[in-house]
Amino acid sequence: MSRFTLKHLGYFVAAGEAGSVTLAAERVHISPPSISAAITQLEAQFDVQLFVRHHAQGLSLTAAGERLLIAARDLLRAADDLGDLARDIAGGIAGPLRVGAFRTLSALVLPELVAGFAAANPRVMLTMVEDDEADLAARLRRGEIDLALSYAQAADDIVFERLALLPTYIVLAAGHALAHRPSLALADLAAEPFILLDMPVSRDYFRSLFDLAGVAMAPAARSDQPETIRAMVGAGLGWSLMTARPASRVAANGCALVYLPLADMVPPMELGLLTHRTLRQTRAAAAFADFCRAHITTDRLPGMAELPAIS
Fold first, then answer.
1. 128 lies in which domain range?
2. pLDDT value at residue 310
3. Residue 181 shares a structural domain with residue 262
4. Is residue 308 included in any domain, yes or no?
5. Distance separating alpha carbons of residues 10 and 7, to the nearest angstrom
6. Cβ-contact 196, 210 below 8 angstroms
7. pLDDT computed for residue 311 by the predictor
8. Are residues 284 and 259 in the same domain?
9. Tell me, what CATH number does 209's domain have?
10. 3-state SS string for the chain
């Protein structure tokens, strides 16, 4: 019997993560019988059952399968590291890199950041993944991404490295009666319709700001799309709060906006890198992390307007 290969292990990991031969085959762009054959060969060679087959309901890992899945991931990463090292010796950082980003940040921060990194590291094959904060952490745990740009979160197996502090802004239509003010407090707009950026992290953070200010948060409208929020504000439907201040002050519908600093004394959001505590970083991931440290600061963020100092 032929020995297993890294490809067999890759198919096994894909099946273990997907819980389905069909989904695993779609993920790695191979036929389902090839996935099944790889699993059968591994089980025969190791003399252990890796999966419980559920008729028409996919697969579930056995206890032995769960242990082998962890070891297989480590081995595949080690193989990637070896390939990275060989490419480095041949000349420069190279290889695949999968970068995640919180959805409200990706359109603003990633394009300029990725363009700069790609220019300096043309042999890195970079893939971007946009998702919510909890899903980014889940992708890190499954090894689907190497690192992510997101807001701070607490988890035993996820490491957050702060790169910048983001102040909060009140977003108004340019023609609003209070748009000329240097700053505004939440109480100044308590009687006007508030439009909430309705995403788990943003929603909870903004609610905490209202609580600290002693103002009730009663959204008149909500959306989980930042550009929709900006367009609604520009159209005069209300005001909003945001921590991301784009370089452009025009919404997608062509309406002009103003971003005023929040006068209330509230904690800023923390922006930084998420990595898995125990998974080893590839050289490409380490290089991207270094690039982020050099180009993301509290004073300047790619894709955003110049930020005021935070004391």
1. 92-165+270-295
2. 47
3. yes
4. no
5. 5
6. no
7. 42
8. no
9. 3.40.190.10
10. CCCCCHHHHHHHHHHHHHCCHHHHHHHHCCCHHHHHHHHHHHHHHHCCCCEEEECCCEEEECHHHHHHHHHHHHHHHHHHHHHHHHHHHHHCCCEEEEEEEEHHHHHHHHHHHHHHHHHHCCCEEEEEEEECHHHHHHHHHHCCCCEEEEECCCECCEEEEEEEEECCEEEEECCCCCCCCCCECHHHHCCCCEEEECCHHHHHHHHHHHHHHCCCCCCCEEECCHHHHHHHHHCCCCEEEECCCECCCECCCCCEEEEEEECCCCCCEEEEEEEECCCCCCHHHHHHHHHHHHHCCCCCCCCECCCCCCC
Query: Mean pLDDT in runs of 10 for the chain (311 residues)?
Result: 81 90 88 90 90 83 91 86 70 85 86 92 92 89 91 87 93 96 96 93 91 94 93 96 87 94 90 90 92 90 63 42
Q: Sign (positive/negative) of CA torsion 10, 14, 20, 23?
A: negative
Backbone angles phi, psi at 158, to 5 degrees: -115, 130
Angle at 268 between CA 234 and CA 304, to 5 degrees: 50
pLDDT given for residue 90 in this prediction: 59
CA distance linking residue 177 with residue 171, whole number of Å:
13
